[in-house]
Design a protein that fits this description.
Blueprint (H helix, E strand, L loop, with lengths): L6 H24 L2 H26 L3 H13 L1 H13 L3 H24 L15 H4 L5 H28 L6 H26 L3 H22 L14
Helix pairs in contact: 1-2, 1-9, 2-3, 2-4, 3-5, 3-7, 4-5, 4-7, 7-8, 8-9
């Protein structure tokens, strides 16, 4: 039964790829930096989802778990937040400075996860191994998920809620308002579902939350994109 759960991370990866493709297309047409950054984040989401798909389908290899952990547990949410900063910041230099920091943090995370020693390779036989089991509790790769993803998730949701609050009571921005909230809800579905699913070793909950969360975020993006021309000083999603 658990092996059949591969369909959900696989579908999540496909949705993330389509989402990223639309963002790349939008960036080519309009040259908005947040679209390029979000495309990077969605490609990371797709990569992590496909690694999870392979791990659940036919057992984990060390490489598959490292890819899943790096792009899914550590880097994905910070890059989503960076895209939100590019969207909302009134001063471009703020987002640019954060981009430089993010590039250094990304390089550090890649080096740490790539070079980390696997503490217990036997846990890779599980359907859903935990980072603390594979790399060791308190190890740097394990801690990176907490240092990177947790604060970034809170900031991302706060930015979405703040953006939506600024659009309340404006009928002409109703689609953007709803789209922004849906993006925050989708991110929360992934965070809670994957956290609880991984912590309790409930593969179906973990796998389904990946698909449900990215689908809701994609829905929010499409809903927000229905609106008319974006104001010069934007405080909403695309």
């Amino acid at each position: 039964m658990l092996r059949r759960m591969w369909v959900f991370p696989f579908a999540a990866g496909v949705v993330a790829l389509v989402f990223a493709g639309l963002l790349v297309r939008g960036f080519v047409l309009r040259r908005r930096p947040f679209q390029a950054v979000w495309a990077i984040a969605l490609l990371m989401y797709a990569t992590a989802s496909f690694a999870l798909f392979l791990g659940v389908l036919d057992g984990w290899t060390e490489t598959e778990f490292r890819v899943y952990w790096l792009f899914g547990a550590v880097l994905n949410v910070p890059w989503l937040f960076l895209g939100e900063v590019y969207l909302l910041a009134k001063r471009r230099w703020i987002a640019d400075a954060l981009l430089v920091v993010m590039l250094f943090l990304t390089a550090y995370a890649v080096a740490q996860v790539r070079g980390a020693t696997v503490a217990d390779a036997s846990v890779l036989s599980k359907d859903l191994p935990l980072g603390k089991e594979v790399f060791g509790a308190g190890s740097q790769p394990h801690r990176l998920a907490q240092y990177y993803a947790y604060p970034a998730y809170l900031l991302l949701v706060a930015a979405c809620v703040w953006s939506a609050w600024g659009m309340r009571g404006r009928p002409e921005l109703r689609d953007r308002f709803m789209g922004t909230l849906l993006i925050a809800i989708g991110a929360t579905i992934v965070a809670i579902g994957s956290g609880v699913g991984a912590g309790l070793d409930v593969v179906p909950l973990f796998s389904i939350s990946l698909l449900a969360g990215i689908a809701v975020m994609f829905w929010g993006f499409l809903r927000a994109s229905r609106s008319g021309p974006r104001p010069e000083t934007a405080s909403s999603t695309p």
